[in-house]
What we know:
The protein is α+β, with helices and mostly antiparallel strands. It has helices at residues 3-6, 18-54, 58-72, 112-120, 175-228, 247-253, 257-260, 273-284, 331-435, 440-457, 463-468, 473-483, 488-495, 499-512, 522-527; strands at residues 77-82, 90-96, 106-107, 124-126, 147-153, 158-165, 233-237, 242-245, 289-297, 303-314, 320-329. It has 4 domains: 27-201, Beta-Lactamase (2-Layer Sandwich), CATH 3.30.450; 230-329, Beta-Lactamase (2-Layer Sandwich); 338-436; 462-527, Arc Repressor Mutant, subunit A (Orthogonal Bundle). The protein is built from 15 helices and 11 strands. The strands form 2 sheets. Strands 3-2-1-6-5-4 form a 6-stranded antiparallel sheet, sandwiched between helices. A 5-stranded antiparallel sheet has the order 8-7-11-10-9, sandwiched between helices. The longest helix is centred in the C-terminal third of the chain and has 105 residues, at 331-435. The radius of gyration is 72 Å and the shape is elongated. Mean pLDDT is 79; it is low at 1-14 and 463-467.
Amino acid sequence: MSGQATGQSQPAERPAGLEDLQEEIFRLGEAERLLRRKNEHLTALHETSLGLIDRLDKEELLEVILHRAARLSQTESGFIYLLEPGDTKMQMRVGMGFFEKQLGRRVKMGEGVGGKVWETKQPILVDDYRDWKDRISDRSLDALCSVVGIPLKDRNRFHGVIGLASVDPDKRFQDEDLAFLGRFAELALVAIDKAKLYTEVRRELAERKQTEETLRESEERYRSLLTSSPDPIVVYTMNGTATYVNPAFEQTFGFSSEEVTGTQIQFVPEENWPETQKAIKLMLQGKKIRLFETKRLTKDGRVLDVQISSTIYKNRDGRQAGNIVILRDISAQKQAEQELKKYHDHLEDRVKERTAELAKINTQLKQEVEERKRVEKALRKREVELKAQSHHLEEVNTALKVLLKQREEDKKELGEDVLSNVKELISPYVERLKKGRLNTTQQTLIDIMESNLNNIISPFIGRMSSKYFNLTSMEIKVANLVKEGKTNKEIAELLFLSKNTVLFHRHNIRSKLKLKHKKINLRSHLLSYSPE
């Protein structure tokens, strides 16, 4: 049924090719956009590549690359981690935007986007970093949204990670961002290699400069050493031509530098040529000549004793170029050695003479020692005899002391007996006669008899006994006990007397000894009259 029949109007039909045309226009627009974007990428890569030519610093090159990649991706934040050989962590060396405050951060393998790219060696695209399971647990990174990371690697090793990030939730990186960021990663590797080559070139130049400076200083030291050396020095070519002599050579041998330079110096005595040629042969075989003693001539014909040390030196190609000879004048040393030898021989003769004298003295000493040994033996024998005699005399002396003591005791006992007999048997009668009526003649005879009696008994009594002569027998007993320190009570008990009787006898003794009315101790006085 037609539209007219139904009374309703129908829309006009769209041409069949219109939708296809719109789709084609859209595809062309998208292709144009992609082409323009790709052209921008290529332009940026081209400009960046040109920039690599003018810049040499690695950090500066990486910053340029990162800034251009971020600008093309329409973001303000990016980072570059670098790994040095032997490191266990990567360090953020370049950062922009959000990552400017993160410079110096270090991450381990598998930690964060950088660590994950390091671990997998593959690009990584994260849509939401906050909820990503491998993120770094640092609250300061919560603002990150989309993050993309590309490995910086070549066939030999892994160098680091270049990455871009967005803090805008509406900004999401696409696969094409990974693609063009990979191109910038290649440029970053070129920058790293260029910086590495530049560093190596600078190091090589510095080393070469240092080497040249060292060689120059070494040459200066070498020349200074040759010039200031006190020993003569000659530099020869391999055919024996002198190319240099130092001032010490001129002073020692008298040849000037102009006379000998470029010539073969004729200063070897004829008789020393064989040993000199032998030394030259050894030197050419590569052996060093050290302190070889020989003789050399001076310009005025004097012969010097010298010590020679020689060594081969080589050119830059390692071939033998010549030899350096150091000569030392030892003439004075040789003369001193001869004088020393003469003195040594003289000392040897003196030592031999002295040794002979010492041997003679030693023989005399031996004889004296033998004689002394014989004398000592005789003395020891005599000493034994004297000891025996001394022991015998000691025994005799002891016996004599005993006899003398016994003699004294007998003498004392005899004196006491005589004194006692006189006191008891004679003195009482003499006293009675003296108290009788005697005429003068009789009294004189009695006195003479008493005096003679005292003279007779005097050898048998001591000083005390002489004083006791006027004491009675009981007073003598009391005086003896007082002298021995006995008390009145002890004396009374010993003599079976009363204490008053003892006091009576003590009073009489003091009177007869003329101690009455004197403050003199009776015992002390009696002790003073003890026999010596």
